Amino acid sequence: MENKADTKKGSSSNKLFPMAHAEGPYNYAKNSNYQKTGWDLIKRLTSEEISKKLDVEHLISPGNVFRIADMGCSFGPNTFFAVQDIVEAVKSKQNQSKHMEFQVFFNDHSANDFNTLFRTLPSERSYFAAGVPGSFYGSLFPKASLHFALSSYTMHWMSKIPRQVQDQSSSVWNKGRIFYGSSKKVEEAYAAQFANDFESFLRARAEEVVPGGFMTLLIPGTQNGANLLKCTSVAISELLGSSLMDMAKEGPSYRRTRVWGSRPS
Ligand SMILES: C[S@@+](CC[C@H](N)C(=O)[O-])C[C@H]1O[C@@H](n2cnc3c(N)ncnc32)[C@H](O)[C@@H]1O
């Protein structure tokens, strides 16, 4: 079952953008080392905070089940590494006399490649796995039912493109670019959309995560006041954006002659 936010968004625009499915060479599982490096950098911090602050015994009583959700999990393998690290950090705090069980919810848009996710679940895992389709900008779980919410490299994925940046008659029109470039107004429109989305995310999690529960969010960003033109991610987005616009201008022939490598006739 999809949550309300996914259904509403799907019906108004029918545009959910999951990662490319597992068939083919360009799929996410084969192209997500960058995101893996991000998790590798913060996993120690997450484990340390769990070790210092998580009151496991208090949180899981009376059922002795610890519930984790990875929101925007895609289909692996990064989600499996992250979830395993969290399970191990929580286990290390456990009172050995009590048997604790883990349940992990893998969430992403309903169009995500959940089949591959479940087919490739680690066989040695020490948790029960479940899929939760739907947008994390809406409510996904019953009240106070989660102990740990994780979301890694997802928050830059806004719920929609701000209307005015696509409107040619608006002074905020972004001229078809995929990136805000040097326009302050376009930047502000995207920032407002992000603030809106992020608030929806936090409101939903505030309901779902138990008091004393944990959340790790890994969000790509730039420092306030940084010279954006010197940021690698900005430079890549600019370059990618201008290449995509060139391809779009050339039209379908571009796909035939260049992307798929067949010879122009
Ligand atoms: C860059 S991938 C990150 C995947 C994984 N967390 C990792 O670190 O490798 C972003 C994922 O977020 C998902 N996503 C984006 N917006 C979402 C939303 N509103 N609700 C649920 N998932 C979303 C996308 O479908 C995609 O699978």
Automatic annotation (TrEMBL):
Molecular function as annotated in GO: methyltransferase activity
InterPro entries for this protein: MeTrfase_7, SAM-dependent_MTases_sf
Pfam families from the UniProt entry: Methyltransf_7
Gene3D superfamilies: Vaccinia Virus protein VP39
The protein's name in its UniProt record: S-adenosylmethionine-dependent methyltransferase
Organism placement in taxonomy: Eukaryota, Viridiplantae, Streptophyta, Embryophyta, Tracheophyta
